[in-house]
Write a structure and sequence with these properties.
Alkaline Phosphatase, subunit A, 35% helix, alpha/beta, globular, 13 helices, single chain
Length: 409
């Protein structure tokens, strides 16, 4: 059935059943509103080794510090890095992203990350998601504040979606945000039960609880009416099994369903490679292959809609420049970020390369951070998500962007 006809039919059914039709007015508004751009943030939890993601094959110190886990120079042997610009190369497991890079649809930012020196996964993730490195007093997430600062494109109760079991720190406090582990399991299963639940929350003495409940039920109805879980992948896209493939498939379904999505968030775990990391093959290579296949399927699925979608990866910190005694890497500092999709000035590696000689390393052990991750997001949020430049002081309080990288065309 045509989706618009389905929505109209569903709306009539709900009106007949006594439900308030306001959510369908909101859906129509969100669907026809101008812009329609979506930011997708993917958190690689565990600290991915950015030096083996975007390989500085033109620097001898990289190979000197990693005798067993370095990715070979392009053209030298099987499993070699895929050349990007004559100095940097891409891990061979990321071949699908290399194709996007050559098409100008992907870019990388190296030596990026948080300026906070913490090597605690918990603290570093919290600081990055709050957007206030070093501060433990921030209560909301920076993407939540970005939604508040950006002009609404409509009245959708599903402005943001996290494909997680609970609301992530980065969207804490967001208006119109939902956490969805599985789309097919998300909904109200019986009108009687739904009515009873709504009545229970409507009778609450606390207005914040009543307001939150109203937003939740509106989001539930919008998602049930749009039925995004029934939308099949398009253009022959095949998502890999696993958490990230499932999450990106569901984000694509939400985008294609027209529910008014503006921000999406997904997690990918398993990047803490202290032992047996591997080089062109092995533990890290397998994780990177899943990452590349999931992103490639996502871009293929959305097709021309990717012009409105910008995907960015982030990770709490990088890994040590030198491998450890277990043929792995320990918690480091600087890292690499991946950018794919609409508006990206692709086919380039951005950022100021600090070098890997001992005197250039952060605390003589880690890749230094020369690009604050907030600079990357600030540029995307202002250029793509219409957050006013003046509003960035609210998104990242106490921080002023140091440089404009020129990421956005």
């Amino acid at each position: 059935m045509n989706r618009r006809l389905f929505l109209k039919s569903s709306g009539l059914a709900l009106v007949a059943g006594g439900f308030v039709p306001r959510v369908f007015v909101r859906m129509a508004s969100a669907e026809t509103a101008p812009g329609g751009r979506v930011l997708v943030a993917v958190f690689l939890r565990g600290a991915v080794d950015g030096l083996n993601v975007v390989v500085p094959w033109g620097e001898d110190a990289y190979y000197a510090g990693r005798p067993t886990i370095a990715v070979p120079r392009p053209g030298s042997t099987a499993g070699a890095a895929l050349d990007l610009d004559g100095f940097f190369g891409l891990h061979p497991s990321l071949a699908p992203l290399h194709a996007l890079y050559r098409e100008g649809a992907a870019a990388f930012v190296h030596a990026a990350g948080s300026p906070d020196p913490s090597r605690s996964h918990f603290d570093a993730q919290d600081f990055m998601e709050s957007g206030t490195p070093g501060s433990r007093t921030t209560r909301d997430g920076f993407l939540a504040r970005a939604l508040t600062a950006s002009p609404r494109r409509g009245e959708s109760p599903v402005r943001a979606a996290a494909l997680t079991r609970s609301m992530p720190r980065i969207l804490a406090g967001a208006d119109g945000a939902v956490a969805i582990d599985r789309l097919e399991r998300y909904g109200l299963r019986g009108s009687g039960d739904a009515g009873a639940l709504e009545a229970m929350y409507a009778g609450s003495a606390a207005e914040p609880l009543r307001a939150s409940a109203r937003e939740s039920f509106e989001a539930l109805r919008v998602l049930e009416a749009a039925a995004p879980s029934r939308i099949a992948a398009d253009n022959g896209a095949q998502y890999p099994p696993g958490e990230l493939g499932r999450s990106l498939r569901q984000i694509a379904q939400l985008i294609r369903s027209g529910v008014g999505l503006e921000v999406a968030f997904a997690d990918a775990t398993g990047w803490d490679t202290h032992a047996g990391q591997g080089a062109s093959n092995g533990q890290l290579a397998n994780r990177l292959r899943d990452l590349a296949l999931a992103i490639a399927a996502f871009t293929r699925d959305l097709g021309s809609r990717m012009s409105d979608v910008t995907l960015v990866t982030m990770s709490e910190f990088g890994r040590t420049a030198r491998e450890n005694g277990n043929r792995g890497t320990d918690h480091g500092h600087g890292n690499a970020m991946i950018l794919v999709g609409g508006g990206i000035r692709g086919g380039r590696v951005y950022g100021r390369w600090p070098g890997l000689s001992r005197d250039r390393l952060y605390e003589q052990r880690d890749l230094a951070v020369t690009t604050d991750f907030r600079d990357v997001f600030a540029e995307i949020l202002t250029a793509r998500m219409r957050v006013p430049a003046a509003g960035m002081t609210a998104v990242f309080p106490g921080y002023a962007a140091r440089e404009r990288l020129g990421l956005i065309a």
